[in-house]
Amino acid sequence: MEKIAILVDSGSDLSQALIERLGIRALPLKILYDDGEYLDGVNIEPQLVYERFPGQIPKTSTPNFAEITEAAESLKAEGYNRILAVCISSGLSSTYQNVCAALSEVEGVESHVVDTKNISIGAGVLAIHAAMLIKRGLSFSEVCANVESNIENSRIFYYMDTLDYLRAGGRIGRVTGVIGSLLNIKPIISCNKQGIYHTVSMIRGQKRGLKKLLECVAEHCDAHRETFLAVMHGSAPEVAHEVVGQLRQLYPKAQILLEKQINASLAVHTGPGLIGILLFQPA
């Protein structure tokens, strides 16, 4: 019989409550300061990252081969013979490549690794979706195929208060590199089909930026389909809560999965003031 495990990296930004409720396993990304190495969500919280800005901008790294293999062997010891790994975009991180390499060496377990071409809950929602499919009794091959077919149905739009940290981390992608800070111009960014950051719009001021964020969701939302939403923030809980309220009014039938501070590994590259909205409409 198939016993299917779901493995994610902490860049998927799932809450601990969801991880526990759905039985998902998370591999922590690493945050590297001069004073040591921290594990995302284990011994470092996002607030520490913000407190050290702007004087200290750490680097991040992915789980290594041994750590991924250890996680897989642990799942195998618990009786799992299938592993579905859901990873953040290969265009933004080497996590996907590392997981592919490590799982291919684990004997006695069939595995499938998904390159979500997305980041944060834009990747994590596919793991949530997979868990729901498993509970419905779908086979491993069916779950894998369904998740792959829904990659493009997961969209996340971010209002960025600053691009300084994306630039510092070398993850600027196709996002406009020069911002008129004196003019208070802010970007709305998303991931393109290649899983690389790109500019959706340039807006002057936070108020207009948040309005445009909602417009981006509306442009891609099909009112006749099942809809899942989430709101992520970077040290901006009050603003995020206001956005959730607006979404509840605009989409009363939608299920709001999360209202959450982004994890430390993502805070490193985005800085404070970020607001993100996920739209997921599975086929």
Please tell me about this protein's structure:
The chain has 283 residues and is of the alpha/beta class. The protein is 36% helix and 25% strand. It has ten helices and 13 strands. It has helices at 16-22, 46-52, 65-77, 95-103, 121-135, 140-149, 164-168, 206-220, 237-250, 264-270; strands at 4-9, 25-27, 30-33, 36-39, 59-61, 82-87, 110-115, 154-159, 185-191, 197-204, 228-233, 255-261, 275-280. The strands form three sheets. Strands 10-9-8-13-11-12 form a six-stranded mixed β-sheet, with helices on both faces. Helix 4 links the parallel strand 6 (82-87) and strand 7 (110-115). Helix 2 packs parallel to helix 10 and helix 3 crosses helix 4. The longest helix has 15 residues, at 121-135. The protein is globular, with a radius of gyration of 18 Å. The model has no long low-confidence stretch (mean pLDDT 94).
Question: Which short descriptors sum up this protein?
Answer:
single chain, 283 residues, alpha/beta, six-stranded mixed β-sheet, four-stranded parallel β-sheet, 10 helices, 13 strands, 36% helix, globular
Strands, total number = 13
What is the mean pLDDT?
Answer: 94
**Rg:** 18 Å
Structural class of the helix and strand makeup?
alpha/beta
Share in helix: 25-40%
The SSE order reads EHEEEHEHEHEHHEHEEHEHEHE
Question: Strand-residue fraction?
Answer: 25-35%
- Principal-axes geometry comes out as globular
Distance between the termini: 27 Å
Catalogue the unreliable spans.
none
How are the strands of the biggest sheet laid out side by side? 10-9-8-13-11-12
Biggest sheet layout: 6 strands, mixed
Count of DSSP H/I helices? 10
